[in-house]
Amino acid sequence: MTTTGAAPTTTSSHSMTQAQFDKLRKVVYDRAGIHFQDSKKYVLESRLARRLEELEFDNFDQYLLFLTAGPFQMDEFQEMFNRITINETSFFRNEPQLDVFEKQVLPRLMETRSTHKTLRIWSSASSSGEEPYTLAMQIHRSLGVRLADWRIEILGTDISEKVLLAAQTGKYPAYSVRGVNPMVLQRYFKEEDGSYQIDPQIMSMVRFEKLNLKDRIAAKRFGQFDVIFCRNVLIYFDDEMRKSVIEMFHNQLAQDGTLFIGHSESLRNLDVKFEPIPVPQAFAYVKNA
Question: Which domains does the chain have, with CATH numbers?
Answer without folding.
Answer: 18-84 (1.10.155.10), 95-287 (3.40.50.150)
